[in-house]
Amino acid sequence: MMEVFLDNMMNDPMFWKIAAVIIIFILVASFKKLFKLASILFLIILLYVGYLIMTGTDLDEISEQIQESAENGLKQMEESFEEAKEFTEDIEEVVKDITEETSEKVEKKVKQVAMKKKKKSITEQFKDQEDKMMKKFQDEENAIMKEFEDLE
């Protein structure tokens, strides 16, 4: 049912015309916003350059200051990136150590639990000894009873 609907829709030329119009509207709206943003940025830069010319500031000096601040920003960004990388490596080592310690503790606990399951509790041990003694007494009693029966 759904496949038939999709096939009909894909083969319908009207569907493709509507889809093309919608895509064009989306692209135009996006380009309008980008064009608006670029125009505003260009206007701001023009106003700033006009202000610099009006105040008599040397444009070369300003461009050198901008370039120096950009280089300083890049250096600081590289340094912070290196610090973040080192921090990440340190954290990775700590996590690895903690994981190893935790796995060792878990293995130790698993072994302890396994040993506890293998060992019987004290009450179970007493019960086993009691059962052995009772069996021994029953065997002796049966042997004595058999001797008395043989005497008769």
- Helix fraction, binned, reads over 70%
Query: How much of the sequence is in beta strands?
Result: under 5%
Radius of gyration over C-alpha positions, nearest whole angstrom: 45 Å
Task: Give the topology string: H per helix, E per strand.
Answer: HHHH
User: How many structural domains?
Assistant: 3
User: How many distinct helices?
Assistant: 4
- Helix- and strand-based class? mainly alpha
Low-pLDDT windows of residues: none
Cα end-to-end separation: 97 Å
Number of strands: 0
Overall shape: it is: elongated
Report the average pLDDT across residues: 84
Q: Mind summarizing the main beta sheet?
A: none
What does this structure look like?
The longest helix is centred in the middle third of the chain and has 60 residues, at about 60-120. The chain has helices spanning about 1-10, 15-55, 60-120, 120-150. The protein is about 95% helix and about 0% strand. It is elongated and about 140 Å long. It starts with a helix and ends with a helix. The protein has 3 domains: about 1-55; about 60-110; about 120-150. The protein has about 150 residues and is mainly alpha-helical. The model has no long low-confidence stretch (mean pLDDT about 85).
Summarize the structure.
This protein is mainly alpha-helical and 152 residues long.
Please supply descriptive tags for the structure shown above.
4 helices; mainly alpha; 152 residues
Helix-strand blueprint:
Elements: H1 2-11, H2 13-55, H3 59-118, H4 122-151
